[in-house]
Write a structure and sequence with these properties.
The structure is a single chain. The chain has a seven-stranded antiparallel beta sheet with strand order 1-9-8-5-4-3-2. A two-stranded antiparallel ribbon has the order 6-7. It contains five helices and nine strands, in the order αβααββββββββαα. The longest helix is centred in the last third of the chain and has 18 residues. The protein is an alpha+beta fold. It has one domain: Alpha-D-Glucose-1,6-Bisphosphate, Chain A, domain 4. Belongs to the AHA1 family. InterPro entries: ASHA1/2-like_C, START-like_dom_sf. This is SRPBCC family protein.
C-alpha cells in the first residue's frame, strides 16, 4: 500500500477538518511554514499567537504560544515528522527537539494539500493516542476552533498575502 493510500485511512482516534480553498497549495504551505504568516492565522477568532518558532526539517521544533483575550496562554511544543513541500506536513507533541519524549503526548497532526483544478483541498487530521484524548480534544472545541483557524487561514491566503 502506498503512503498516499495510508494517509486516507482514518486513524482510530482521529478528528479531521477539510475544505476546498480557492488558492494554490504553495501559498497555503507557505502560510503553514513561515512563522510570521502562521502567527497571523493560528488559533480561533479572538486568539493571538505572539510566539511561533519552527525549524523546518524532520526533528525540527514546532512551537507556538496562543493567547486568549483573557490572557490565558496555550503553549504547544513538538517536532516535525514529515515535510513534503507543498503537499504535506506532519508534526507531533510526542517528542520535543532532540527526539526527547515529551512525557504526555496528546496528538500528531497531518496537514495535506491536494491540487483540485486550481484550488486546494485542505485536510487537517488530529490523531490522538487514546479515545479519551480524542474526546477531550473534541470537547475543547476541536471542530469550532480548528474551523475558525481555517477561516483565518483562508482569509490570509485569499486576501492578505501576495502570490
Amino acid at each position: 500500500m502506498s503512503p498516499h493510500a495510508l494517509q486516507q485511512t482514518p486513524a482510530a482516534f482521529e478528528l479531521s477538518i477539510s475544505r476546498l480553498i480557492d488558492a494554490p497549495r504553495r501559498k497555503i504551505f507557505r502560510a503553514w511554514t513561515e512563522p510570521a504568516l502562521l502567527s497571523q492565522w493560528w488559533g480561533p477568532h479572538g486568539m493571538t499567537t505572539p510566539e511561533c518558532e519552527m525549524d523546518l526539517w524532520v526533528g525540527g521544533q514546532f512551537r507556538t504560544l496562543m493567547r486568549a483575550p483573557d490572557g490565558t496562554e496555550y503553549p504547544t511544543l513538538g517536532v516535525f515528522l514529515e515535510i513534503v513541500a507543498p503537499e504535506r506536513l506532519v508534526f507531533t507533541d510526542a517528542f520535543v527537539p532532540g527526539w526527547i519524549p515529551s512525557g504526555k503526548p496528546f496528538m500528531s497532526a497531518q496537514v495535506t494539500l491536494e491540487e483540485r483544478e486550481g484550488k486546494t483541498l485542505y485536510t487537517a487530521r488530529a490523531m490522538h493516542w487514546s479515545e479519551a484524548d480524542r474526546q477531550a480534544h473534541e470537547s475543547m472545541g476541536f471542530h469550532d476552533g480548528w474551523g475558525q483557524s481555517l477561516d483565518r487561514l483562508v482569509t490570509l491566503v485569499t486576501e492578505g498575502m501576495p502570490d
